[in-house]
Amino acid sequence: MNPIVIAALTASLLSGCGTMDKMGGWVGGWFGGGVAKVKPAELVEFKQTVSLSRAWDVSVGSGAPFSFVPGSDGQAVYAAGKDGRLVKIDIASGRELARADIGRPISAGVGVGDGLVLVGTLKGEVLAFRSGDLKPAWSATLAGEILSAPVVGYGVAVIRSNNGSIYLLESADGKLRWAQSRSLPALTLREAGSLVMDRRAIYAGHAGGKLSALSLANGAPLWEVSVALPRGATELERIADITGNLAADERMVCAAAYQGRVACFDAREGQPVWGRELSSLSGVDMDARQLYVTDDHAAVYAYDRERGVNLWKQDKLRDRRTSTPLVLDRWVAVGDYQGYVHLLNREDGAFAARIGTDGGAIRGPMLALDRGFIVQTANGGVYAFRIQESGIRNP
Fold first, then answer.
1. How far apart are CA 242 and CA 232, in angstroms?
2. pLDDT per residue as tens digits for the range 364-389
3. Which residues touch 1 (CB under 8 Å, ≥6 apart)?
4. In whole angstroms, what is the distance from residue 351 CA to residue 95 CA?
5. What would the pLDDT profile of 196-229 be if each residue is shown by its tens digit?
């Protein structure tokens, strides 16, 4: 088990808590908290083969210890910080277009869709704002802390809380359509994994290593499979939670579990396609050919998405607490605990470019744009970067 995980879990058990706080660090040290037992790799020199340039940046206030991610409707970017600031940003210029000062702390966001922007709180509140002017649209109160961004679309908003429940609300007014609950293991990571939604189903990874598809219409289980099986003599050793990003398209759903596997399944029936032993806290991304995942020691892997063959591994970022990979045309981007973004060649994992931010950890998923991407740091910086194949400069 990762030494940082052991330290954080031990502290959690001594305090009598049933959840382990992954929010404060790579499990316990991402934003300066916790006790690190390993020394992160030093950055290596390399010749840049593509140029990264900063298009704009804004600040929305610190996100630590929570994991905030930016969202977009194609015209604007929406971002939030824990102190209750929600900002609408012009996607081209970085100019602030609207702002909502919510007046109380928030713990998750943002979800964008159906003309709405959603955030969540530790008290189970879901707050919806109109995307045009960020004026309040509706609110709803659910059970449990909300720690992951809501998913909005197809006329509904899907929310998950850390008590094991998933809720589906009507986008129009926030009324509850259905709720689906499940029991949790004795000890879990204190972060709810992301959700993926299409017109038919909601795909969710769970504590204990399960991956399920729920009917969008009524929440009924369509299928459930095991990405990982808890194993070991102690509750610490038996943690096998899926807390990172899922990747899905019309054919396939893929996930990775802590102390478990990375695996892909048929989206319709849940039949296994392939699986490989790997421990991950941050999840996966995929394109038409490959699946990308970072393990719990920050190595980045690429697998053939049809057969599960390991195509390459980039291990020169060891223990730099890399984020969920983001596929960007011919590159794969990952952030690290010092706020650096590393661009890797999709074909072989070689370093292609690197750029810094404000020094805050990059942990949540990044947002892909046309010829670029947006990242939010733990310090509250929101950065838009452009990828250019000319005018290359060394870092």
1. 17
2. 899 999 889 999 999 999 999 999 97
3. 236, 237, 259
4. 32
5. 999 999 999 999 999 999 999 999 999 999 999 9
Cis preceding linkage at 382, omega within 30: no
The CATH number of the domain holding residue 12 is 2.130.10.10
Token pair 């309040």 is found at 136
Sequence-distant (6+) residues with CB within 8 A of 188 are: 18, 19, 20, 207, 208, 239, 241
Residue 393 lies in a domain: no
Distance from C-alpha of 56 to C-alpha of 242, rounded to nearest angstrom: 33
Range 84-110 average pLDDT: 97
Per residue, the 3-state secondary structure of the chain, as one string, reads CCHHHHHHHHHHHHCCCCEECCCCCCCCCCCCCCCCCCCCCCCCCCCCCCEEEEEEEEECCCCCCCCCCCEECCCEEEEECCCCEEEEEECCCCCEEEEEECCCCCCEEEEEECCEEEEECCCCEEEEEECCCCCEEEEEECCCCCCCCCEEECCEEEEECCCCCEEEEECCCCCEEEEECCCCCCCEECCCCCEEECCCEEEEECCCCEEEEEECCCCCEEEEEECCCCCCCCCCCCCCCCCCECEECCCEEEEECCCEEEEEEECCCCCEEEEEEECCCCEEEECCCEEEEECCCCCEEEEECCCCCEEEEECCCCCCCCCCCEEECCEEEEECCCCCEEEEECCCCCEEEEECCCCCCCCCCCEEECCEEEEECCCCEEEEEEEECCCCCCC
Burial grade of 118 (CB within 10 A; 0-12, 13-18, 19 or more): buried
Q: How many domains is the chain partitioned into structurally?
A: 1
Q: Give the domain extent around 161.
A: 3-388
Distances (CA, A) of 205 to 35, 59, 164, 167: 28, 31, 11, 15
51 in a domain, yes or no?
A: yes
Residue 308, domain member (yes or no): yes
- Both tokens of residue 67? 């994991």
> Global pTM?
0.90
Q: Note the pLDDT tens digit of each residue in 281-337.
A: 999 999 999 999 999 999 999 999 999 999 999 999 999 999 999 999 999 999 999
Residue at 394 is within a domain: no
